[in-house]
Design goal:
Elements: H1 3-11, H2 15-18, H3 20-27, E1 33-36, E2 54-56, E3 59-62, H4 68-80, H5 83-87, H6 97-111, H7 118-129, H8 138-144, H9 147-155
Parallel strand pairs: 1-3
Antiparallel strand pairs: 2-3
Helix pairs in contact: 4-6, 6-7, 6-9
Length: 174
């Protein structure tokens, strides 16, 4: 791990700080099972490597040093992808730009339901990690430029008219 990666990791909330039980309680509502990986072991299904969460089928692989934003992001890929892609999921969630934006939006909505995380912390962690938004920050994107992402989530019935999760998975490609 590079020095800069280690510095960013220390600045963002990890699964160890949150507690895997809180994450599991949230994600089980979607049929997604977090699978702990031993410290120092490679994370199966991780697209980005290092401490980033991995996806294989309905399993979300995490280590204690996995950033909470990474676990939520990968979980939201699982939630937002259509059932055909979900059935063959291994490492690369794929999807188009609209789905990626919806994933980012949904991870913020779910962060509010995790003790000690919330919207402000997650948005700050997304910025610290290097998420890229044309307005310069995750917060500015979420608050002023993410209406299309919310509309996508509502159209796919993943959130209701008040932006509350419906606890359902996306069905077929829309």
């Amino acid at each position: 791990m590079s020095t800069s990666t280690a510095a960013v990791q220390s600045a963002v909330m990890t699964v160890a700080e949150l507690g895997a039980t809180a994450l599991a309680g949230l994600l089980q509502r979607y049929g997604l099972a977090p699978v702990p990986v031993a410290a120092g072991d490679e994370i199966p299904g991780s697209f980005w490597g290092e401490s980033e969460a991995g996806l294989i089928g309905n399993r979300l692989y995490i280590r204690s040093d996995t950033p909470v934003h990474s676990a939520l992001h990968e979980a939201c890929h699982y939630i937002c992808m259509d059932s055909d892609r979900r059935s063959g999921l291994h490492t690369d969630a794929g999807g188009d730009y609209a789905e990626e934006d919806a994933v980012c939006y949904l991870q913020v909505l779910l962060a509010v339901r995790l003790p000690g995380v919330g919207r402000d912390r997650l948005l700050a962690d997304m910025d610290a990690w290097g998420y890229s938004f044309r307005l310069g920050s995750a917060r500015r994107w979420f608050e002023t430029d993410a209406g299309d992402a919310l509309a996508w989530l509502q159209r796919e019935r993943l959130v209701d008219a008040h932006a509350n999760p419906t606890w359902q998975l996306r069905d077929a490609a829309g």
